[in-house]
Amino acid sequence: MMQPEDLSPREAWESYVDQRQTETTDQSQATYHYRLKLWVEWCEEQDIERVGDLSGWTLEQFRSHRSGEGIAATTLRGEMQTMKNFVEYLERIEAVDEDLAEKVKVPNVPDGEESDDTRLITDDAYRLIEYYRNDATDYGTRNHVILELVWHTGARLGAVRALDVRDYHSDDQYVEFVHRPDQGTPLKNKTNGERMVSLRHRVCDVLDAYIQNERRNKHDEHGRQPLLCSAQGRPSRNTVRVWMYHATLPCIYGPCPHGHDPVTCEFTDYNQASKCPSSRSPHQVRTGSITWHRNRGVPKEVTRTRVNASERVIDQHYDKAEARDRMELRRRPHLEKLDFGDQENSE
Fold first, then answer.
1. 285 vs 288: CA distance, rounded Å
2. Global confidence as pTM
3. Cβ–Cβ < 8 Å for 12, 94
């Protein structure tokens, strides 16, 4: 019988990824798969045949190798955290020396570099939504709907893609996010990501118009009716991403800020919109939405529930308000609480 320490790096990797299938979403699974695949390939290049031969020095050499390839600090941190988790698994099955995971160096990321600050800023979101709501041609289109949905719910790409027509409740004005992993539409936080999110009536008007006039009458492979629908049925994650890039092109509502002619600009082509410096991905629209929620005075506990993220994660990764925004929009309304009132007037 093979002993755990005799597993090859590739065999250990496959075993680890396999045992995590019940603990993580498909998207997280793909991330672990890719990060550790890089490590496996490096081990094979270094002729490391047994995980039992791993040492602190081996792991440090791999970290140095990845760092030397010029990857971002946040990327290196993520890869080494995954490596640490993997080595902890190897310890648990007694394939490596005890406490080897403690020798994995997970680099610190300086403040301000741990998350991407790029977002759809509120002024641009207002201009885009105002355009869509007032343009007879683009009102209620797929691009209009995806922008309104992500901006007003702060939902992730996967959550919006997972919506069915039945998950939208027009009369009661809300959408319901449901975890359906067996049918290809898991939520990132699984059942903990399930929630009902209320909508303003003007957002519902847009959804109603889209369903009545623009939505393709298609089903996915499970017989469900996707709310956001392509010619084939439920769109892929990348297709939804492309739609959002197109929905946020700045030349939609005004002159190109980069001096290009929209008629000839290559960024308006279907597969090129992501290259426009001002177009935004679903994640960047979500980031802008969460900042907007907070700037509008929506309490953290309410924002947390709507967007399905912890307060710590919101503060660290999504809430990108500038210092002046925080002062003007969040703190200044509380100044009246600092008034001495009658005591001050009597002095």
1. 5
2. 0.65
3. no
